[in-house]
Protein 1
Amino acid sequence: MLKIPRHYSKREGSFSRCPDNEPVALKIIKNVEKYREAARLEINVLEKINEKDPDNKFLCVQMFDWFDYHGHICIAFELLGLSTFDFLKENNYYPYPLHHVRHMAYQMCHALKFLHDNKLTHTDLKPENILFVNSDFNITYNPEKKTDERYVKNTQIRVVDFGSATFNHEHHSTIVSTRHYRPPEVILELGWSHPCDVWSIGCILFEYYLGYTLFQTHDNREHLAMMERILGPIPSHMIRKTRKQKYFYRGALDWNENSSDGRYVRENCKSLRSYVLCDRMEHRLLFDLIQKMLIYEPSKRIMLGEALKHPFFDELTSEERAVCKRDSGLR
């Protein structure tokens, strides 16, 4: 926790948005030009978010201000808790309870709808970039596993890391998203837009629910094979359109089921609905939502305004909905 030295401000009166005597999180950028340029781009996005959401209603991390200290760009943010990944890791990857998954999912959809409404794609959604506002927890002993389990007290979250966020009018890099959360249109180099984030959210929700990643791979061909094993065949029109024909043969994925990699995928991947832990309706509704987020064709993937109305969210309490009641109203 750091307090900002006023005499290092980029201008007189800097940090007018920063509450007096309150600790902040300070992101310090290496004094290397490529990192400085990346920081400037992130600051541009954060300033636009502040402009569109001055009251911080839409759950994106709040930048208070920034300054240059001997060539190091420093960005001051609201101080938050652990990331949802770090909490999961410190809890021995014990998955989040379903009602926690529900509230976090609703907030993510709310925040990303706001970004999409404002012509912005995050492009790097993952559990590491979803932070709890406060990650304090209770501990409960699990007699079956003979271990203590942590339950976060407050599931309010913030979306962070806008270093790769891209406006609709800006150049779109060919490859975006961290591997495990990367959609098929990016792997196949078919171009991408807002649905890229929706796919990532679907992967994140699976991970919250089960405690491990849906697509555990670092190879494009294996990644596509896992997708087909879990979600069914890749649509033929996407195969015809892609430049990455090296992954296909005669209109189908070129994949040897009997190789060691093929056996690994066959033994470790199954159809999406097979991962449901129990047959209760709320569990099935979560997987219905995830399936709609993991549709291959981006234009057919559920949009976040529609996702927010999904029956999986019917069980949210009024308190859980309260933070997300307002529509962004920004186009």
Protein 2
Amino acid sequence: MILWRRIRPFLSTFVRFMHISFLEAKSGYQGTRLGLLWLPFSTLIFTGMLTLVFRHSDTMPIADFFLYVLSGYTLWQFIQGSINGSIDIIQKRLEFAIHNNLTLAGLFSKLLVDRLFEYSVNLGVLIVAIVVLRPGYVGWDLFLFAPFIAIIVPTSLAISYLINIITVFFPDMATLIRTATRFLFFASPIFWIASEGTGVRQFLSQYNPVAYFLGMVRQVFGVTPIEASAWIGSIAVSLVVCGVGYVAFSRSKGFVRNIK
């Protein structure tokens, strides 16, 4: 009971934020026939294009490669939202926070829930695709989903705050960050297979932090075999990012609250 009383306010806030995220996402597709269904459909369309363009017939069956790309691309959208979607939060969303009686941490948490909502929709697409195309992928690996979420959620929150603080102090960094994110898309094993890379690809798969997180999600859904290196790398990156993010928040929150 004591534990429930402690977590109940957080769960209540999470459910309320998810409902708001649903309404906001729905309004974004207002006037279209498919409505919110455009969110998963656009993911499927782009994933299908990547699969057809970059798939090599001698690498793996097309269904397996489609699931490989889909699992990576859905997580990439979450990562991209954590970066590009956080460039101007403080600069443009403080009035929203004041109107909704949100603290600075509450504002960033609300936007984190927005990203989680979209990711959950795309995860639903991924799960359906796996059940239809490769039901054998579904197994005990799914129990790794809880630690996977426990890693990416605080990492996303910390990255979001760090990115925004950087652009507050150095506004010109906003354009550079957007450009770097586009480069990171091609430098990450989303539509190319990390295990088969050589030269530059091998270097990127080893030293690109995104590769560790992509490896985790593919292992959770049985797309690739379990490898401890992906989890160790992700946890290490998460600890560093969260540590730096906590220090940045502690030292800058007073300044941020004074921004009009």
Protein 3
Amino acid sequence: SGARLAGTLLRELERRGGRHGIATMCIGVGQGLATLFEREP
């Protein structure tokens, strides 16, 4: 689900010390979504 993808991305950003991450999701019927996350220091 989208919540699992976002949660995993945010956990990995923290673990690796990253600042930006992007998650892409397929909604179906040719639709998609991309979300950019920025972690503040």
Protein 4
Amino acid sequence: MAEVVVPPEIRRFLLACIPSVPHLEALLLAHAQPRAWSVGEIAARLYVDEKTAAQLVRDLQEAGLLASSGGGVRFVADEARTQLIDALAAFYSRNVVAVSNLIHSAMERKAHRFADAFRLRKGGS
């Protein structure tokens, strides 16, 4: 089976803005149903606890992808971003493994860089 290639614009967005699959799922939820979402609703839909959902929301707000609205949060939509997230949602629905692997590989690279930096500071090789 041929390896799935993530389109460049989706790849750039994921690597720059989405640190984990739950972050992606929260973003896609808010994008798919454009209304104010409470942390509790996000937690229930993603099968995570409210503390985790609150952190996901904070991270996505810091990235400018969600904004406070009516006691909850909603997707921050502009035409270009909406088109990108539409494309991402469609691609992800057909290529869950490829997108998940890309996100996980980015997390792994960051962990290795952190470990390498720690070893260098400690005088290791």
